[in-house]
Amino acid sequence: MRKKLNFSMTRGLHVGAAVILAVACSASTDQNQGGSAGSSVGAAGSANGGKNSGGAPSSGTAGSPTIPAAGGASGSSMTGTASSSGAPAQAGATGTSTAGAPSGGSTSSGGSGVGSTAGGSSVAGAGGAPGAGGVAGGSADTCANGATAKPCPPTEPNSIAYIGCSMADNIGQGYGQVGGKIMWNNSGYGTGAKVVENWGASGDGWSLFNTKLNAIGGKDKVKAIMVQICILSTRSEANVKAMIQAARDHVNPGTHIYLVGQPSYEAGHSCFLAGDGGAEWTEATAKKMAMDSTVNKDLTYLGQFKLDTTKGESSDGCHAAGPGFTALGNQAKAYWGG
C-alpha cells in the first residue's frame, strides 16, 4: 500500500545593517575666509578646526577677534567651528564628528560634506542616514514583495517549481487555493507517494515533473525549485544528495534550490508514515545539506511548513485537510511573497 506524505517549511531571517563613521582631525592649519584679524587664541581655533574626514556642518558660527567660537579651539569638538575674525569659515570645521556629514555627506565610498577637505570611510549620508547603496533603514533583508525566503525568490508566475511527496502536493494545492501564482500549484501534477528514492537520477517522479514543466513553458520559466525531503523508512543522506543532484540536472544551471523537510505539527505529534523520529530526521537533514560545502552550491534551507491537527488541519495525522490546505498555502505565500 503506497502512503502519501506531506511536507512543511517555515523560514525567516532578517538582517539589519549598521553604519560606523570614523573621522580624524588633521593637525595642519586651514585658513579662514571670514577675516584676517584675530588674536592668537582665535588662530588656534581655526588650526584645530581645519580638516576633517567625515563631513562638516552646514554653517559655522562667528568667533570674536580674541575668543574662538564654541568648540573651535578643540580638535575633538563634535560640532564647533572657529574663525579668527568676522564671518565664519566657509563651512566650519568639525573635530571627531560621529554623525556623518550633516550637510550632505557621501555614500559608502566615504565622501566629504561642504567644506570638508578629505573623504573618509564614512557610509553615512546627510544627517547620518545610510548613504546611497547602503541598506535603507536596515531593510536589506526584506524582499521587495515581502517574501521571507532567502535569498529573495523570483516573482514571475510559475517561476518556482517543486518536488516531493504528497506533502509537497498538499502545499501546491493549498498555494493555488489562496491565489498563489509564483510557485507551481498541483494542477496536473500529483506527487503523491514520491519519496526521496523516487527523485534520484532514474526516479519515476521526473516524468511527472517534465510534464508539468512543459505545461508551464519549459526550463526557462523556472528560476528556483523547492526540494522536499520525504521518507517512509529509509534514511539515507546519500539518497538525499542524489535527489538534489537530479534536481539540478532537470533545471537550468544557476537555478536556486530551496531545501525543506517534512511538515511539523503541534508539540507531541508527528506523522506516523515517516516512522518514529522520521519527520525530525528530514528537517535536520535539510539543514545539514544546506551547510554541506559539497552540495550547497545555489542551495539554502527554506524553513518549515506546519500543520496543527488540533485545529482540524489534518484528518489522518499527516496530510492536509480542510483548513490545512489554507494554512500550507498561506505559509507558501509568506515564503514567496505576494
Characteristic terms for this protein:
single chain; 338 residues; mainly alpha; Rossmann fold; 2 domains; four-stranded parallel beta sheet; 22% helix; globular; disordered N terminus
The span between the termini is 39 Å
Strand order of the largest sheet: 1-2-3-4
The main pleated sheet reads as: 4 strands, parallel
CATH second-level architecture of the largest domain: 3-Layer(aba) Sandwich
Globular, elongated, flat, extended or rod-shaped: what is the shape? Answer: globular
Helix content: 10-25%
CATH topology of the largest domain: Rossmann fold
CATH class of the largest domain: Alpha Beta
Order of helices and strands: HEHHEHEHEH
The unreliable regions are 1-139
Kindly state the number of beta strands: 4
Descriptive notes:
By secondary structure, this protein is mainly α. The chain has two domains: 18-135, no CATH class; 160-336, SGNH hydrolase (Rossmann fold), CATH 3.40.50. The chain is 22% helix and 5% strand. The chain is built from six helices and four strands. It has helices spanning 40-48, 166-177, 205-216, 237-249, 278-291, 323-336; strands at residues 160-163, 224-228, 256-260, 299-301. α2 (166-177) packs across α6 (323-336). It is globular. The two termini are 39 Å apart.
Helices and strands in order:
Elements: H1 40-48, E1 160-163, H2 166-177, H3 205-216, E2 224-228, H4 237-249, E3 256-260, H5 278-291, E4 299-301, H6 323-336
Parallel strand pairs: 1-2, 2-3, 3-4
Helix pairs in contact: 2-6
